[in-house]
User: Which sequence fits this backbone?
């Protein structure tokens, strides 16, 4: 007997029909999108941004428009300590013994007591041959060898080695420099510099009024007690407004324009393109020529002209005019695309077959045309969002977008650029938000294009 | 080919007419009398304008006068500066913008093609990954950030070097142009790199590349003779819109770097409500962009025989 | 040893859905002046086996995991270069299925035909161009000199395929591989192109490998036939053996599915039910078992060996096993 079994087997014709489960277009697209890690992560970034804009303000309940002029352009890590003012006690100053060393600048320079916005008291070591001293104050680190500018004050004796600064002190970081003078009043070539972090002093009344402390807690505060100023996680802008709150408000503006405008102009384009594609012939020709003209208009220049045309009155944000201008100028791209798709689909065999089977036009449109153009329309929309966010940012940046005080990310960048060298966070944060959002939408668009492209569905 | 160029030119003229008309009617409907602006247009300018542009006449007549002026190449008068003609402003400031723009588009185009080809050659290896990351940065960071960061970088470099390696702002020499042009071209370069990469990868698997390999053509020759030329085609088609993008991008770069170009002047004119300059410059820019698109189309026809011979 | 000999070739592709075992032990050979037809349904691995030995499949994702291929005794899987010259385009010419996309759209036809001449023969631009025009003439393209300066989009499909042929034979190859050369063409043009190929083969004494799914083409052109299914060769033999003394149910199925104009044969076409197996996880037994009307238990459990029916005729079917008692009418037994 053979080792093999030659017994015939019976099989039904359809048993071996090894077909994979068929998927609907959108389900398949969704699976493909999920498989694309970059695009799927981007989807969550986009959702996160939307949450930041529209849920964020309910979590972070700081008013984005409140100005704190004593706390402007603060980075996130700024000192938040404050002291309740104590009665002012006059300072007699310090008299030093005759110096011994032969250095040209004071050997030490230090703060006496606490540096507050009430007063900063300095004392230093005497310098040989000096006949007086000059004191300078800077908000930036002074460069060695460079002139120090206007002096704050000084002393006129070798042993008078102290100085009290009470001139409009801000709660910030100062660089104090002391230079010795000879009998002619000429400065010695070297200076001694220290950094001083100034703590805010205030009264209980002011603190309550500013909302820094609750009235209920105010009883615990006596002169000299310390408390924490309100927290600004991302710092403040040039008017002392909370940057996080402004970014949230700005996100609302930027995302609103960035999403609603493309939504409207893509819809407008779909309607226009479908009409053109369906009617065909001369109507199509005329409609498409007009679309070509609109495309040829210099886009940003006309955005500016429209801004002038709509005339933004005082107290208006300028969001609506921008939306209208964007829709008026941006619809032809989507219109061309949809028209092309419709013309192509009209020629497809399945549409022809459906027509031969007696399907009426409205059903043809509903069953075949619309579902088959939805893919490209969605992809167009997704790519239109980042470019619209860019447009808004660009226009607001050159001052042609939303009007102050309405924040948008672009407008915030424009504000931030002025103080970029000293406090870069005012530019970096809004720029970062623009970049992340634009990037996420671009990657999502890539993913959607790959997921929705029917040509790729059965390939690979 | 000649017929094609002529036809494109005719289309171009009609398009420019449309742009001029649209500009006229938008500007005409701007609320309030631009001359009655409280910024006080001087009596002299006012008379001059009324005489020259017929501002006291009915709209249609004004339109005819305006189109007549445009036809003669007269872009109008400034509303803010006495006796300053827009033509003069364009003549003075446009060459600066043009040089900057040309430099930027050359940097963007060459860079885009080169980086794109490189990424495709080194697909999924580290040069590809590094360039792709830079490209992602390039397409998601707004141009004004590049401009400010570029300037800050210059300031820092100069400070560290202790001498002026490259000037931080201003105009005049090649040294003044380099960084602004690079900054201006960066976004477009990123976009073109991406496009070139996609196009290269698509063509790698094209049937005609397989044919070339079946013919025993060496890899280097396949790359240069078959792949590159076909891959560049889509890049050329988007050069038109890219030029438009770079032109308007120039507004910011010129502002940041203090370059006396037309873009900076335009922004200034908008801030000063100088309607004459706004109108004239818009039409000029429109015409310029239309011309550029036609030139790009002709360039495309030269490269692609399918267009040239039809 | 035959001119071109391929044995036990295995090719795999790594894809995002898994590994596709596209070719699973294909063997065939062809002699000078002979025509070998490789037949099979789409996706059976016939193009892949030929393209892989020519180094035309992208690697990765593709790779040859086993097997040998020799041309004139040279192992061409190790090196496709003989005397430092690429065999491709030089000793072996290839024609592809779709002439519309297989030619570079931005290069003139003449330049594309001249290219292999310049690469392999080192001809100057002018000489190569002159030769290209002669070749176009040989492939019956009227006004060859003018046509050589034109671009692919100015040619019709049939004309393009002629140009492809001119390109493939430009360096007088010893083997011509035609990968479904007429599939994309009009029926009327198909015959002309096949005649042209046959004529050139006779003239130049080339070996011809014809890949096709059209049995009519096979009957008309081939001396030898290899029938492929699901990545393996099920039957091979001379044309007569395959068509008249077929030893495999699949080949029988194929011939029954072919229309014929002979009266005595039953008029009704018999389609083969079902579809080829999934090559992500190929069956352990015979690839055709799932669709075979005569399938036995052994067919599912064990891969059939190649049973020799004559010197030139082999069939991978358990029906030929000495212990198998079933006699299927229509199947030719040794």
Assistant:
């Amino acid at each position: 007997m053979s080792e093999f079994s030659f017994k015939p087997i019976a099989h039904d014709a359809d048993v071996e029909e090894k077909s994979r489960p068929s998927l609907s277009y959108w389900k398949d697209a969704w699976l493909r999108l999920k498989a694309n890690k970059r695009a799927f992560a981007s989807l969550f970034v986009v959702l996160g941004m939307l949450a930041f804009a529209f849920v964020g303000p309910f979590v972070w309940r700081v008013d984005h428009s409140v100005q704190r002029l004593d706390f402007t352009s603060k980075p996130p890590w700024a000192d938040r300590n404050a002291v309740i003012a104590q009665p002012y006690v006059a300072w007699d100053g310090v008299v030093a013994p005759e110096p011994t060393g032969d250095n040209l600048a004071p050997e030490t320079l230090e703060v006496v007591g606490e540096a507050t916005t009430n007063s900063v008291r300095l004392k230093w070591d005497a310098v040989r041959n000096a006949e007086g001293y000059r004191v300078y104050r800077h908000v930036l680190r002074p460069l060695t060898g460079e002139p120090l500018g206007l002096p704050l004050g000084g002393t006129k004796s070798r042993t008078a080695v102290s100085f009290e600064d009470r001139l409009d002190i801000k709660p910030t970081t100062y660089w104090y420099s002391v230079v010795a003078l000879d009998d002619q009043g000429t400065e010695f070539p070297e200076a001694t510099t220290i950094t001083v972090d100034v703590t805010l002093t205030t009264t209980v009344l002011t603190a309550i009024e500013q909302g820094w402390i609750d009235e209920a807690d105010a009883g615990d505060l006596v002169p000299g007690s310390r408390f924490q100023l309100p927290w600004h996680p991302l710092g403040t802008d040039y008017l002392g407004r909370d940057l996080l709150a402004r970014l949230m408000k700005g996100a609302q503006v930027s995302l609103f324009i960035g999403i609603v405008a493309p939504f409207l102009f893509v819809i407008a384009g779909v309607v226009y393109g479908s009409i053109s594609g369906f009617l065909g012939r001369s109507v199509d020709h005329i409609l498409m020529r007009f679309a070509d003209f609109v495309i040829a208009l210099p886009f940003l220049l006309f955005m500016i002209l429209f801004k002038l045309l709509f005339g933004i009155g005082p107290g208006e944000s300028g969001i609506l005019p921008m939306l209208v201008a964007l829709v008026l100028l941006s619809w032809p791209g989507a219109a061309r695309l949809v028209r092309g798709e419709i013309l192509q689909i009209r020629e497809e065999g399945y549409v022809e077959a459906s027509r031969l089977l007696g399907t009426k036009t409205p059903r043809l449109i509903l069953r075949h045309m619309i579902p088959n153009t939805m893919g490209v329309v969605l992809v167009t929309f997704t790519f239109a969002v980042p470019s619209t966010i860019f447009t808004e940012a660009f226009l607001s940046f050159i001052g042609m977008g939303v009007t102050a005080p309405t924040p948008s990310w672009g407008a915030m960048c424009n504000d931030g650029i002025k103080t970029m060298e000293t406090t870069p966070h005012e530019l970096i944060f809004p720029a970062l938000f623009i970049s992340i959002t634009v990037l996420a939408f671009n990657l999502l668009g890539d993913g959607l294009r790959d997921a929705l492209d029917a040509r790729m569905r059965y390939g690979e | 080919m000649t017929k094609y160029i002529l036809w494109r030119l005719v289309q171009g003229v009609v398009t420019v007419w449309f742009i001029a008309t649209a500009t006229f009617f938008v500007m005409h409907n701007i609320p309030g009398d631009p001359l009655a602006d409280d910024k006080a247009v001087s009596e002299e300018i006012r008379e001059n304008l009324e005489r020259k542009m017929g501002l006291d006449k009915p709209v249609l007549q004004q339109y005819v006068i305006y189109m007549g002026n445009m036809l003669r190449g007269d872009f109008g008068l400034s509303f803010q500066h006495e006796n300053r003609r827009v033509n003069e402003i364009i003549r003075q400031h446009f060459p600066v913008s043009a040089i900057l723009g040309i430099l930027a588009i050359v940097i963007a185009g060459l860079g885009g093609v080169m980086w794109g080809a490189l990424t495709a050659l080194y697909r999924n290896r580290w040069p590809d990954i590094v360039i792709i990351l830079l490209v992602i940065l390039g397409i998601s960071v707004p141009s004004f950030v590049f401009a400010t960061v570029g300037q800050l970088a210059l300031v820092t470099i100069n400070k560290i070097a202790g001498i002026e390696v490259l000037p931080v702002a201003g105009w005049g020499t090649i040294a003044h142009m380099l960084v602004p042009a690079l900054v201006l071209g960066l976004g477009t370069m990123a976009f073109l790199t991406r496009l070139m990469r996609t196009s290269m990868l698509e063509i790698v698997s094209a049937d005609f590349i397989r044919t070339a390999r079946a013919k025993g053509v060496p890899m280097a020759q396949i790359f240069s003779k078959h792949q590159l030329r076909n891959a560049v085609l889509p890049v050329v088609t988007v050069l038109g819109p890219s030029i438009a993008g770079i032109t308007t991008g120039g507004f910011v770069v010129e502002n940041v770097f203090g370059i006396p170009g037309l873009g900076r002047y335009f922004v200034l004119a908008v801030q000063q409500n100088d309607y004459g300059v706004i109108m004239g410059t818009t039409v000029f820019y429109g015409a310029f962009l239309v011309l550029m698109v036609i030139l790009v189309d002709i360039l495309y026809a030269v490269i692609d025989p399918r267009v040239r011979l039809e | 040893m035959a001119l071109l000999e391929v044995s036990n070739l295995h090719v795999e592709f790594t894809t995002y859905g898994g590994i596709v075992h596209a070719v699973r032990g294909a063997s065939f050979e062809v002699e000078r002046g002979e025509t070998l037809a490789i037949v099979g349904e789409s996706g059976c691995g016939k193009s892949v086996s030929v393209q892989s030995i020519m180094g035309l499949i992208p690697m990765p994702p593709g790779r040859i995991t086993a097997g040998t291929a020799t041309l004139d005794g040279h192992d061409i899987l190790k090196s496709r270069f003989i005397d430092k010259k690429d065999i491709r385009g030089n000793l072996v010419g290839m024609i592809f299925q779709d002439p519309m996309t297989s030619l570079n759209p931005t290069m003139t036809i003449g330049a594309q035909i001249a290219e292999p001449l310049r690469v392999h023969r080192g001809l100057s631009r002018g000489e190569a161009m002159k030769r290209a025009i002669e070749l176009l003439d040989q492939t019956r393209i009227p006004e060859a000199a003018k046509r050589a300066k034109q671009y692919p989009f100015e040619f019709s499909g049939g004309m393009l395929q002629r140009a492809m042929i001119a390109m493939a034979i430009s360096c007088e190859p010893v083997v011509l591989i035609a990968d479904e050369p007429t599939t994309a063409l009009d029926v009327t043009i198909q015959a002309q192109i096949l005649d042209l190929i046959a004529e050139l083969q006779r003239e130049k004494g080339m070996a011809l490998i014809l890949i096709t799914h059209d049995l009519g083409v096979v009957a008309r052109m081939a001396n030898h036939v290899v029938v492929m299914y699901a990545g393996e060769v099920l039957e091979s033999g001379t044309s007569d053996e395959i068509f008249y003394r077929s030893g495999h149910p699949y080949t029988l199925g194929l011939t029954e599915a072919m229309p014929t104009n002979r009266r005595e044969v039953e008029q009704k076409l018999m389609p083969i039910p079902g579809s080829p197996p999934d090559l992500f996880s190929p069956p352990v037994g015979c690839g055709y078992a799932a669709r075979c009307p005569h399938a036995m238990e052994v067919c599912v459990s064990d891969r059939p060996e190649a049973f020799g029916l004559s010197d030139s005729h082999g069939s991978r079917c358990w029906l030929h096993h000495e212990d198998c008692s079933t006699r299927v009418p229509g199947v030719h037994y040794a």
Remarks:
- The longest helix of chain C spans residues 187-204.
- DSSP finds eleven helices and 14 strands in chain C.
